[in-house]
Amino acid sequence: MTQGTAVIIGAGSGLSASLARQLHARGHDLILGARNTDKLADLASETKARTVALDGSDPAQVSALFASIDGPLRVAIYNPSARQRAPVADLDPEEVRRAIEITAFGSFLMGQAAARIMQGQDEQDGKRGTILFTGASAGVKGFAQSAPFAMGKFAQRGLAQSMARELHPKGIHVAWVNIDGGISNTARAERTDDGTDKMLDPDAIATAYMQLIDQHRSAWSNEIALRPWVESF
User: Fold this and answer.
1) φ, ψ of residue 173 in degrees (nearest 5)
2) 127-156: pLDDT as tens digits
3) In 3D, which of 106, 114, 113 has the Cα closest to residue 134?
4) How does DSSP classify residue 202?
5) Distance in angstroms (rounded) separating the CA atoms of residues 30 and 227
6) H helices within 6-130, ranges in order?
7) Cβ–Cβ contacts within 10 Å for residue 63, how many?
8) 27-42 per-position pLDDT tens digit
């Protein structure tokens, strides 16, 4: 029996692949959205997911994806973000605009589309659905030469806080997850952990997302931070 649809925007290797596998194991019908869906072929086959090529910051494309959902939407996760690392005096304004569109505006588009569907559907296990945003420590503290990333993540965090206060009483769980550290990824040499667990394991992060999805509505988290045991605060 299906557990309803789960949507992951910004799917790829690493965290989103771990999320897809764990959601599939729970019986969700998966939709994986990404700019390049060719890279998702193996993951889609493994998880029986439908892939959709889209730009998460494009209103029409996001709207079309959610309009195509057949049946209840139980989980929506937004992963994309963009960085422009440079001294503030040297930043290209159009590149900054694009970074904010991907990180913040795209989060809004997914959150709005998911909320519209979830508000009109029946509850399951005490909730109508769960909306999760993948954040970063840049949403808590801005780092030097990283203003666009901080701008996007602060906006995303504020969006999640506002949505949580509005939607929790309507049975929709909203949370922002501060990923405070690098995520290991065997597909990228520079992201391979050396066995010391100094980087976040994507499967462990995905398990924390599942725990958020499972939370009883009497004790919902609207924000959590995940960091490796060696990461400084």
Assistant:
1) -85, 125
2) 999 999 999 999 999 999 999 999 999 999
3) 106
4) H
5) 27
6) 15-25, 41-47, 59-67, 93-100, 106-119
7) 14
8) 999 999 999 999 999 9
